[in-house]
Every structure is written in C-alpha cells, then in structure tokens.
Amino acid sequence: MTAPTQEFPRLSAERVAALTGRVFSTSGETIASVTPVTGEKLADVPLSSVDDVAAAFARARKAQAEWARVPITERAELLLRLHDLVFERQRDILDIVQWESGKARKHAFEELCDVAMNARYYARVAQQHLLPTRRAGLFPLLTHTVELRHPKGVIGVIAPWNYPLTMAISDALPALVAGNAVITKPATQTVLSGLLGAELLADAGLPEDVWQVVVGEGRRVGAALIDQADFVCFTGSTETGRSVARRCGERLIGCTLELGGKNPLLVLDDADVDKAAECAVRGCFSNAGQLCISIERLYVAAPVYDAFLERFVARVEAMRVEPAFTFDADMGSLISEQQLATVTAHVEDAVSKGAQVLAGGKARPDLGPYFFEPTVLTDVTPEMTCFASETFGPVVSVYRVADDDEAVAAANDSPYGLNASVHGRDLRRARAVASRLRAGTVNINEAYAAAWGSIDSPMGGVGDSGLGRRHGVDGLLKYTEPQTIAVQRVPVAPPGRVPYDVFARAITTGLRALRKAGRR
C-alpha cells in the first residue's frame, strides 16, 4: 500500500472558474474547496446567502412555468443528450470527482454510469407514467375518469459529499422530466461536482434557471431551501434527516430521505467462499466505505467461517490503496480530517475493548492526509462503538453464526434497514433468507450494485435509514401532484321524483352485479 510517484492531472484556473461561476451568489463570501488527495486548495467557491436562495427560487418558478409547457418528449430528449455527454466528457468528469472526493477512479466511474443510466431510464419511461391515464369510473359507461400528473413546482435537492456527482444529479432527473425546476445544494466539500452537473445539463440544452445551484451550510442555506421548496430530496445522516423531516412536516410538503445504514452481508454454509470473499471486498471498501449501502457487518456460517475469513483477509491485504488518477487503485482516500478522526476512533475503541485487527487498522499519512487502511475486525462486542453505530469508512466486523436463523436475527438487530447481501449457491434458500431481512434492498451473490443498478425497481430504506424511494416509478411520481378529473354523464342522484329508498335498492342491485362480474 505505497503511493507511486506520479503527476496528477491538474484542474486549470479557467476550468475551476467556469464551474464556480455557476453558483447563485451575491454575498461576496467564499469557502475554500480542499482536495483530500493532497490537502491543497482547489478553489474559492462563492457562498450563497439566504436572500440568494429566495432569489433563486423566484427565478426558478418563472422558468418552471415555461419548462412545464415543453412536451414530455422534448424533456426526455434532453435527458438522452445528457446521457451521451457524460460519456463524451468522461475524463474531465472523473478528474473533477476524484479531486474533490479523493475516491478511486473506478468508484468515480460508478457515479458517471449512474447518471447515464438514470437519464436513459427516465427518458424512456416518462410518457408511460406522466401522460393522462384512464381510470375506472364510478359507474361503467356513465363515468369517464382520468388521472393527470402535474409537476410539484420547484424541487429542493440537498446532496451529500460521498457521491457528489450522482447524488446532485440523478435524483433530480425524474423531477426535470416531470416538468419541475430544481434548486440543488451540494455539500460544501464537493461543490465543484454539483456545479459540473449544472454545466452538463446546460450544455444538454436545459433552459436557464430551470436548474440552479446554491452553496452554503445546511443550517442556513439548507434550511432556507427547505422553506422555499415544494418537495425536498435529502441524502445524508439520520440525525440531519430527522430535522429535514420535521421542517418539511411543518410546511406540509413531501420529502424523501436516504439516511444511514449498518448494512449486513450474510455468507450461508453453501456459499462459494471465493466469490463471496471477492464480493465482500467490493461491498465493504468501495469509496473507502463511504457509501450508504456499503457493508459494515459480515455474518458467516460456522462451517465456512475459517475458509471465508482466510480468503477475505488475503484479498483485503492485497488491495491497492493509493492516490491514483488511473483505474489501478482499489481504494482511495477518506473525504476529510473529521471522517478520518471518526474511523480512527471507532477502530481504537474496538481494539481497546478486545477486538482483534486481522487487516489494516491504521491511518496512512504517507499516502495522503486522510487515507486509512481497509480494516477487518473480529471479536467485536456490543459495548464497542462500531458494533451498532455507522462508521462510514473502510472498517468491517466479522461474526461467526450457527445457521440461517441466527444470521437473520443478528442482521435485523439494528435500527437501520437500508441494504443487505446474501451469498449462497441454493438460490431458493438465499431468496427465502433475503425476504426475512429488514432492508429496503437485498442483493443475492452481490453486495450492492445489483439492487442499486436495477433502476426500474424502487430503492430506499426502512427504520432509521429513511423514508420514500428513489428509482422506478416511485422515483418519478413523487415529484408530481396527481389530479383526478371525472366526467359524469347522468347525475348521481335519484331521477325525478323517484324515492330515495327505491334509488338505494337500485344502487344495491347494481353494485352486487358488479361484484359478481368481477369488476373493480
């Protein structure tokens, strides 16, 4: 795990200025963007004031009214142009995401692919779900009922730093195709990636002011965004998510929240231990473990425990951890000094209380200011912080379990319920185990990519992992207001001077007939 001597591709002053110029800001204040790769400053990013947020929403509302009148087919075409752009500009995108987040290039590439897949998917399904839909009416032939889908208005997106491009863009693409405008507040550590998203959308042909970026601390700028938005999409910590939900509840607006996780991976006694070990490395250490759906707990059946652990630890020790702008590195840096301190504290606390370190276990300042080795712990017990609390770093605890029931019980013994993984050769058995897990997504013989990448299916958490869903039809329709329009051809009332008791008997006969006919 030594850093090679290399020249990193630099971001020119002109490139940085082109991005920072997209911030909606009149405050005159700036915040420094510092790269975790080397610790040096990348840019001085303008900060938005509360008044800037209000002005951005005022402009967005005017732009949204025009955007909503654009035919769905044209809005969908914009998403397809975005799909093509992210691949055409792949190198520039990967460089910017890496500089800001410190992640390995292969994990930055996952972000690029996610944006493209979401753009393509929602471009293809938009008409199917957004055009007027005929619904069953009160009376057959006599009632004509249609469901319309109207855009909510201006959507507020509060994006995290761990996946700064995809979390700033992908969640809001269905909002755009549904006819909404979007105001995004990226994390202050990774503003350039969010601004890159705005640039890509503008170059794809999105009209001015339909997508705007504001920058600042969540307590001020984030709160101002929530107070103006018609719907909020938030990804971040559970603690902050509760505050967002309270504020949205006071305004009676909707929100989706993807929050924390303490995600388990179960290795059943019939699993292919080589494949399970390989998959666990990806699941535990992608983006240095700074992934809401990454794995932090491994429950391994006793008959295969030793064989799995031997293979898993060997693979972890062979990982290439380095600051590299090529696809050779297996893991990059943590995002910040604060995140490094959290990971270090979790490991030191566990070791001081009796946990064993089988791999890793320490920071690597020789690689960069915030690097930490991929770490495997055993003998982790409930009094240790990392037993139940989310570490959000490259640390995983391994537990021996007797059977499927013990594994399921241990996996479900958590307030979180975001993602899980099950490994076994007997797929019927693995599916049965998966269905018993309290998690919004479960992957079989994969850690997270299968469920995350199945964009036609909803993704989200239960319990302390959040509420609402992204992806699929849920990820689109949450940005719309349904409206029912029903045309009645004859009055729903007794005709003429027919007594109501006669009318009631006629209605009773008709409803019973519909029941027998199998009608809804």
Molecular structure report:
By secondary structure, this protein is of the alpha/beta class. It has two domains: 237 residues, Aldehyde Dehydrogenase, Chain A, domain 1 (3-Layer(aba) Sandwich); 197 residues, Aldehyde Dehydrogenase, Chain A, domain 2 (3-Layer(aba) Sandwich), CATH 3.40.309.10. Helix content is 43%, strand content 19%. The protein contains 19 helices and 20 strands. Strands 12-13-14-11-10-16-17 form a seven-stranded mixed beta sheet, sandwiched between helices. A six-stranded mixed beta sheet has the order 7-6-5-8-9-19, with helices on both faces.
Strand content: 15-25%
Please tell me the total number of domains. 2
For this structure, what is the CATH class of the largest domain? Alpha Beta
Q: Helix/strand-derived class? A: alpha/beta
Main sheet characteristics: 7 strands, mixed
Radius of gyration equals 26 Å
List the strand order in the largest sheet. 12-13-14-11-10-16-17
Q: What is the 3D form?
A: globular
Task: Note the gap between the termini.
Answer: 64 Å
Number of helices: 19
Mean pLDDT rating: 96
Give the CATH topology of the largest domain.
Answer: Aldehyde Dehydrogenase, Chain A, domain 1
CATH superfamily of the largest domain: Aldehyde Dehydrogenase, Chain A, domain 1
**Strand tally, please?**
20
Uncertain residue segments: 1-5
Helix content: 40-55%
